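Internal tracking record. Fields below are filled automatically when a chain is submitted to the structure queue. Please do not edit lines marked as system-generated. If the sequence contains nonstandard residues, flag them in the REMARKS field before resubmitting.
Queue: standard
Priority: normal
Entity type: single polypeptide chain
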Amino acid sequence: MAEVVVVARFRARQGRGDEAIALLRTVIGPTHGERGCRLFALHRATDDPDHLVLVERWDSREDLDAHLQAPHVQSFRQAAGLVMEAPPEITILDPVPEGDPVKGAFAT
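SYSTEM-GENERATED OUTPUT FOLLOWS
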């Protein structure tokens, strides 16, 4: 199994960044308990409170696919239209190990 990295960018509706964070927080706890979840971390842009980014690491594509079908993710998707401007921009990446394993590479 090859590790997978995901970057998901969200744009909250104008002035609704705090509501979007609250909604995303409902997914974080259950996701942290999922098989294969190594990282699921929410970030907010310093210059735009309505721009949010999730950085994820999964043990495998299969684990990511299972996550995307989980009930808490499906519930999030249904509610997201109320506070998000558009669907998230999701990029799925394969790690390219290089350098210090702690700073610049994921273990393979």
